[in-house]
Design a protein that fits this description.
α9 runs antiparallel to α10. The chain folds into 2 domains: 200 residues, 2-enoyl-CoA Hydratase, Chain A, domain 1 (Alpha-Beta Complex), CATH 3.90.226.10; 50 residues. A 6-stranded mixed β-sheet has the order 1-2-3-5-7-10, sandwiched between helices. A 4-stranded mixed β-sheet has the order 4-6-8-9. It contains 12 helices and 10 strands. The mean pLDDT is 97. The chain is α/β, with parallel strands linked by helices. It is globular.
Length: 256
């Protein structure tokens, strides 16, 4: 039975919001290789739809985004199997990072290990006030790898080191103060808070949003001067879509 699904919600501004759900709720949404490959494929195929304006990544229920790797599955891995598994989990993170539209991580409850790496791969993260985040791998004999490499960029080297060396968890408000999440709200307000962001994104020009996502990924990887230079080519690409001409004309007509 599939553990992944996508739901499309029409936006009043045009296009739709795609909510990707990973569902292994009975096991805190812990993930194994088969499910990781399925999830990566679903994210990639969802991004191919031109009408998608924004994605929301969530776990089923309210207890976890992803509670980490499935322990029973991990305990049986050989070194070769471990490489295959971690590659499949990296594919999930890569699919989120390179989705053509922004991805918002919905963090209710636990986001541990691979779950925190999935969260870190989203463009923004909104957490409920009961969220628990951490990288506990060293406590079970493993280093934190793949998209844990994003953590120093998000929280700084010292805090990233604290997470991966101690394996201890932090609460949602600590994560907010560190810059690991963008907002913390009570659980019953979580979807409303995310809805404000998706609404703002859907109000924006859709091709401009896709160009901005592409440029943000370039900013991540390029030295500062190269990142600034890269942006020069994006402005004419924006004008080539026709969106600025239409929207600026509409703005000017409103002012008269």
């Amino acid at each position: 039975m599939s553990r992944t699904r996508v739901d499309f919600t029409e936006s009043e501004h045009g296009g739709c919001i795609a909510t990707i759900t990973y569902d292994n709720e009975a096991k805190l949404n812990c993930i194994d290789q088969t499910s990781a490959l399925e999830l990566a494929s679903l994210i990639e195929h969802t991004g191919e739809r031109e009408d998608v304006r924004v994605m929301v990544m969530r776990g089923a229920g309210e207890r976890a985004l992803v509670g980490g790797a499935d322990i029973q599955f991990m305990a049986e891995l050989s070194p070769e199997d471990a490489r295959s598994f971690i590659t499949s989990l990296h594919q999930v993170c890569k699919a989120l990072r390179h989705a053509p539209v922004p991805v918002i991580g919905r963090l209710a409850g636990y986001a541990l290990g691979g779950g925190l790496e999935i969260a870190a791969s989203c463009d923004m993260r909104i957490a409920d006030d009961q969220a628990v985040l951490g990288m506990p791998e060293v406590q079970v004999g493993l280093p934190s790898v793949i998209e844990a490499a994003l953590l120093p960029r998000l929280v700084g080297w010292g805090r990233a080191a604290w997470l991966v060396y101690t394996g201890e968890t932090i609460d949602a408000h600590t994560a907010l103060s560190w810059g690991l999440v963008e907002d913390v709200v009570p659980n019953h307000e979580l979807d409303t808070a995310i809805g404000r962001i998706t609404d703002a994104i859907c109000r924006a020009a859709p091709q401009a949003i896709r160009l901005q996502k592409e440029l943000c990924r370039d900013w991540e990887e390029l030295p500062l001067n190269d990142a600034i230079e890269r942006g020069i080519g994006f402005l004419p690409r924006g004008f080539a879509t026709g969106e600025p001409q239409a929207r600026l004309k509409h703005f000017l007509n409103r002012k008269r």
